[in-house]
Amino acid sequence: MTETTRTPARPRGPLTIYRLQRLVLAACVVLGPVAILIAALANPPYYGSGPGEAATIATNARSSDLMDQTHLVAELVASYLLPVGLLVMAWLANRRSPWLASVGGLLTALGFIPLALYVGQDSLYYDIARLGGGAALVELAVRFNHDGIMNFYNLVFGLGTVLGPTLVGLALWRSRAVPAWAALCVTLSRLPSFVFLAVPFSVAVAAVLAGVVLLVIGSIPVAVAVWRVPRSIEGELVATRV
């Protein structure tokens, strides 16, 4: 009798979940920047006369409910997807640029932890505007935004959300995980925020919006790389199981 040799079946279950993980992470890389771009374009204070709580509330009072709600919903979505997407970028660069990826990922995580808080802050401004924006309510918003806790969050948010993505972009460039132009887009995407208080308000807003557009552009090749990277790992997994 001859013994029939059977070829082991391809393990579909584990590979399916790995592909699903890749798909979800790649989607976060792109959809996070897209969501924050929509939130920025629909942000009423960006079309106002200047920064500050009083100007923000006054602009919210003049804007349409659709614009306000679009901003809040997009910002809420971004508060979940954007931090994950940026951390995935750091993970992608970690193999060949561990120090830059680690420091950039840490600063990104610390900076974006308060992002959900700022969604609530914008929602508060919206509610105050719809209540008439009285002097007492505006003063409450000013006190809330400038107490000790919020000052700490403002500092960490400002530094982390600028320096974190900048270092992550440099890590992507050094690791050659994505094309150099894509890494440059990520690197430069948040740096315009540093000029916000040094130039006229309209110029600062335009610079910040341009930075968000760069982040969206740079995120597309990163998402493609995230989708492609684990394929060799899957092949090794199949080989070991066969």
Strand content: under 5%
User: What does the overall shape look like?
Assistant: elongated
Bin the helical content: over 70%
DSSP summary: helix tally: 10
- What distance separates the N and C termini? 25 Å
Can you tell me the residue ranges where pLDDT is under 50 for at least 5 consecutive residues? 232-242
Mean pLDDT: 86
Domain unit count:
1
Radius of gyration: 22 Å
Sequence of secondary-structure elements: HHHHHHHHHH
Q: In total, how many beta strands?
A: 0
Structural class: mainly alpha
Largest sheet: number of strands, sense, barrel closure: none
Structure description:
The radius of gyration is 22 Å and the shape is elongated. The C terminus is likely disordered. It is 78% helix and 0% strand. The longest helix has 30 residues. It contains 10 helices and no strands. It has one domain. Helix 2 crosses helix 5, helix 3 packs antiparallel against helix 5 and helix 7 packs antiparallel against helix 8. By secondary structure, it is mainly alpha-helical.
Please render the helix and strand layout as text.
Layout: H1 12-41, H2 53-62, H3 65-94, H4 98-112, H5 115-130, H6 135-145, H7 148-175, H8 180-188, H9 201-228, H10 231-241
